[in-house]
Structure formats: C-alpha cells, structure tokens
Design the sequence.
C-alpha cells in the first residue's frame, strides 16, 4: 500500500470527518472508497491494446464489371463519357 498526503479545504475536511464518525470508518477508508468509486465511474480500465490495421476493402463495384473495367469507368472524364454516350 502507498502512503500519500493531500490538501483539502477546511469545510470539505470537516464534512468528511462527520461522515467518518457517522459510518464509524477511518478517514483513510473513506478516501479509498471515494477514489475507488470515482475511478470506476470516470476511468474505466483500458482494454488490451490491439495493433491497429485499416479495415479490409469491400467489393463496392457495379455488378458485372471487373476491377479493370471499374477502374476505367472511374478514371473516365465527363467529356470522354459524353463522347461514348454515357452519363457521368
């Protein structure tokens, strides 16, 4: 266990001592319980870090087109598409 020292405003310390007396616990026990509660609410334990990797690509192309045809369509300018009679 680690010993530590903290500074508290007088009114906070007085209120904490009253709680300790009412609950019949030590100030150290009240402090431990308070810290454990705050840590459970605001600082959940981190999950084991996994090595980041980009998501796997999905097949989003038009049905019936090969990867080569899809690449040609994507790189075609609107002027080229107009000459071929396609909408771009």
Sequence:
């Amino acid at each position: 266990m680690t010993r530590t020292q903290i500074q508290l405003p007088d009114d906070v310390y007085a209120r904490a001592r009253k709680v300790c007396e009412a609950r019949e616990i030590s100030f150290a026990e009240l402090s431990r319980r308070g810290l454990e509660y705050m840590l459970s609410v605001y600082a959940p334990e981190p999950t084991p870090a996994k090595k980041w990797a980009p998501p796997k690509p999905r097949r989003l192309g038009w049905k019936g087109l090969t990867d080569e045809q899809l690449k040609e369509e994507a790189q075609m300018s609107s002027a080229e598409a107009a000459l071929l009679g396609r909408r771009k």
Notes: Residues 10-42 form one domain. The longest helix spans residues 27-42. The chain has a mean pLDDT of 84.
